[in-house]
């Protein structure tokens, strides 16, 4: 029973994001990060061949902290708890990016998440787990490490594995864990990301390993 209530709290937090963001007490900031951002005219899946750009860009953000109205930082802390890591993340809410990404700035582990994008993917994928799968994927990049793998595709597979692993630990079905990537992922490999079918397989592997009580430590750079 406790597990069901725990999962319900996470889901409700994500669903409330678009309603409550404007009432957050945090002030907007303009910050520059080296991260992924979707080019104008492109959308996650539809025109993904237009690609992502990995360069220093300026974002309008608000920091999300545990207990605030957005619920994003609460989701992050719940994910950390369920996989047993105790490392600090700075979580920023962005707008107009249609994206989420992870980066490191001067040793600070950062997550940048567009709150309306979270709402959009939940609606499009038809499951409240879609947004959580994206947040879990970005945390997976931090756990797996950004430069450990020789290619960007392999790094994405690591983060996908963690997305599936985390969602199983939170109580998601295997089908729900892959719905987001199957709805929004690319049919073909792109320069930055593998196709949605191979990514779905990586998510399923993480989900299945979590169900078995197994963790592939080759997917970890640290913390384990």
Walk me through what this model shows:
This protein has 224 residues and is an alpha+beta fold. The chain has one domain. Helix content is 46%, strand content 18%. It is built from eight helices and five strands, in the order H-H-E-E-H-E-E-E-H-H-H-H-H. The protein has helices at residues 2-15, 17-20, 72-83, 115-125, 129-144, 152-170, 174-184, 196-212, and strands spanning 29-38, 52-64, 90-94, 100-105, 108-114. The chain has a five-stranded mixed β-sheet with strand order 1-2-3-5-4. Helix 4 crosses helix 7, helix 5 (129-144) crosses helix 6 (152-170) and helix 7 runs antiparallel to helix 8. Residues 37-53 have low confidence and may be disordered.
Defining key terms:
five-stranded mixed β-sheet; alpha+beta; about 220 residues; globular
- Mean pLDDT value: 81
Order of helices and strands: HHEEHEEEHHHHH
Share of helical residues: 40-55%
Q: Could you give the order of strands across the largest sheet?
A: 1-2-3-5-4
Quick overview:
With 224 residues, this protein is α+β, with helices and mostly antiparallel strands.
Secondary structure topology:
Elements: H1 2-15, H2 17-20, E1 29-38, E2 52-64, H3 72-83, E3 90-94, E4 100-105, E5 108-114, H4 115-125, H5 129-144, H6 152-170, H7 174-184, H8 196-212
Parallel strand pairs: 3-5
Antiparallel strand pairs: 1-2, 2-3, 4-5
Helix pairs in contact: 1-3, 4-5, 4-7, 5-6, 5-7, 6-8, 7-8
